[in-house]
Amino acid sequence: MAGCSSRSGSNDGEEEVELVVAAAASLTDALTALKDSFENEHENVSITFNFGSSGKLATQITQGAPVDVFLSASPKDMDVLEGEELLIDSTRRNFTENALVLIGHRDAQFQVPSFGDIDNAAIANIAIGEPESVPVGRYTKEVLEHLDLWDTLQNKLVRGSDVRQVLTHVELGNADLGVVYSSDAFISDKVKVLAEADPNWHAPIVYPGAVVKSTKHEAEAHAFLAYLGSEEGKKALEAYGFK
Predict the structure, then answer these.
(1) In whole angstroms, what is the distance from residue 23 CA to residue 236 CA?
(2) Cα separation of 154 and 90, whole Å?
(3) What is the CATH number of the domain that holds 149?
(4) How confident is the model over 63-119, as pLDDT tens digits?
(5) Is there a contact between 211 and 68 (Cβ–Cβ < 8 Å)?
(6) pTM score
(7) Domain ranges, residue 180
């Protein structure tokens, strides 16, 4: 996945670096938008993204996948890597936040003014992230348990492998409802937000990033993390619905 080679035309004969960033699926659009501007400022660096559920990405890193930077949609998955001493000390930082929303297809006629108003009898199914490996699924489970709906809705749950699969289920009409991040709903013109979860119902949706200890490009990895916290990075994240 990662490597380096001499590239003709690079500044001052600098070695070309391919920086591999494993990132939560919900970051897809914002990071893709940032890619060109970062590479323009760091002409010897090209970024390769590996998007997926934070839990699965963390597992890949523990199994030795070549990754330079890990961007998680939850502290829990970053904690796993930190506990196994797979991160460079002091590089971990929180760089953005998100909110949890209930969505339906844009053409749906029914109204669900709050999560507590989800009617088991009125829906065929509801798409959520797999709670064991997908952060948005864990947050969703916390909300539904808080509202005493988790057990009631078990036979209606359609579990997605990451938040974008949950979004797709609702976009295609394969699920009446879905629970995603506000940033995912923000980028889709095929769904509408029906309700937002009270942040007191779930753990804080915080996105930590860190440099993976096995990186061969520590300086470039540090630079990318710093870029996320720069004004340019903040603007890009906010433009795609992050807080």
Answers:
(1) 15
(2) 41
(3) 3.40.190.10
(4) 999 999 999 999 999 999 999 999 998 999 999 999 999 999 999 988 899 999 999
(5) yes
(6) 0.87
(7) 100-201
